[in-house]
Amino acid sequence: MLRDMFKKTYTKIDTRYKAPKKEDEPNIPEGLWRKCNKCGQPIYVEDVVNNHYVCPKCDGYFRVHAYRRIEMLIDEGTFEEWNKEMEFSNPLDFPGYEKKVQAAREKTGLNEAVVTGKGSIMGNETAIGVCDARFIMSSMGHIVGEKITQMVERATREQLPVIIFACSGGARMQEGIVSLMQMAKTSAALKKHHDAGQLFISVLTDPTTGGVTASFAMLGDIILAEPNALIGFAGPRVIQQTIGQKLPEGFQRAEFLLEHGFVDKIVKRSEQKKVLADILRMHRKADVESSQTTGGQADGSASSMESTMKGAGSVDNSSKNRTGSGKTAWDTVQLSRNAERPVATDYINAIFSDFMEFHGDRYFGDDGAIVGGIATFHGMPVTVIAQQKGRTTKENIRRNFGMPSPEGYRKALRLMKQAETFGRPIVCFVDTPGAFCGLEAEERGQGEAIARNLFEMADLTVPVLSIVIGEGGSGGALAMAVANEVWMLENAIYSILSPEGFASILWKDSKKAPEAAKVMKITAADLYDQGLIEEIIPEEEPASAATLPVIAECMSQNMTRFFAQYGTMNSEEIKEQRYQRFRNM
Fold first, then answer.
1. Angle, nearest 10°, between helix axes 446-457 and 406-421?
2. Is the pLDDT confidence value at 294 over 60?
3. Fewer Cβ within 10 Å of end Cβ, the chain: N or C?
4. DSSP letter assigned to residue 541
5. The whole model's pTM is what?
6. 57-77 per-position pLDDT tens digit
7. Cα 21 to the chain's mean position, in Å?
8. What's the alpha-carbon Rg for the chain, to the nearest Å?
């Protein structure tokens, strides 16, 4: 009976349905709808255009034509193209090459695989080069190399930053060794640009491979990438054929490179204009000033600091002599380790504006125990680097409980050297039980990484301020505290090793840690009395989320004094002051 009921129902539905006549079908103009080549779904072309050429259904990124990308990034009416037309030549007399180039020109309307020129991004003037994959897969022949080189050389003369959007299949096979030489030529031009104190931002798009990856694309002072972009020297097909193994999921994608330390930041296409504008803005003043000096970029930053901090008011430093009376040294140890204490990024967010984190050591990986990037302090660009603990067990595991590995110290040093190039003062937040002491850390050179930081920090030409906000454990802390001044929070500690370790080594009993803490003289008051630190930041109440604003305000006022003082010093004076600080200990 039920079967008969269903049969009657479906029969009734079927009789109601009438197939539309052909003239009743919607008339969709050709080209209005396309099939996404990533997810296979039909997509409305106008939606894709309005979404910065990203599929609205799968977030897949489509390749963007060079002029279209410039239109998306450069302020209207400000783009001036350079070297639009360059004469073709066939250096190897390769058969059929001229026809191939001519066909690419007719198809794309481009003279070659890169468009170069200058323009403004939200008011910040820059030279820009954009590769176009439609032109022989944006391979780098001698004209591409020449256009990029001439752009960089002109930017150096005109004191302009450079942005290059890389997209390439690599060297152009039809030009053989001539194509290979473009790798060296573009790299040499960028070295001169770097030595002149100018900024180069490299943006890696899909795909960036071969000789382009092994030259200008990976030489950026700051390297950004689009999500899921294929980036590598040898292509995945070549690698797979060579090793005879299937490659892991996500291999050579932007996220893979970020994890392995080769990319500073992955930026969505919709956010690129603002991110680029922010980076240009935070480099603009330092760039101009540093280019006007000789013998070190710090002279320019000093002028910037002095003008920024002039009239900011004096700071009452009477609090520096606080001794934390009533607390034992062991009490201070416990407070320094308290899970409720603010972590480094809390202070960064409370004190600085526009913080933009950068990642990776450009050698092996990105260490979550070190956070670093650029920010502004009352409008002045600064580099901020911090040892970061987690607030939860999961985050602590990701941050390795604030114990940096070699790649963390190398990331910190990379950012410090970058700060020196652009005349930015450096602020370090120290909070670590010590450097990570694991097998893999030793294999990757933990001792060398720390030693290299001590060596290079001693000679930095910009002011360095280090603040111990929690634990300052041994050489792992010192590797970020070779500074012109070292400050400590009242309930922070700074020691040769943990009190537990000290007691175990000297007394063979880790339970004597409270006694060891007293003998070691590791509190801020102890170290101030010994002349080993310059400031104590008071904690009227132990540091917590509730007291963070007061502590951050005190830090900020003292930083104002620090920047004003060191803003009057030239690079040699800054280096010598730092040298004598440690020489006298």
1. 20
2. no
3. N
4. S
5. 0.86
6. 999 999 999 999 999 999 999
7. 59
8. 29
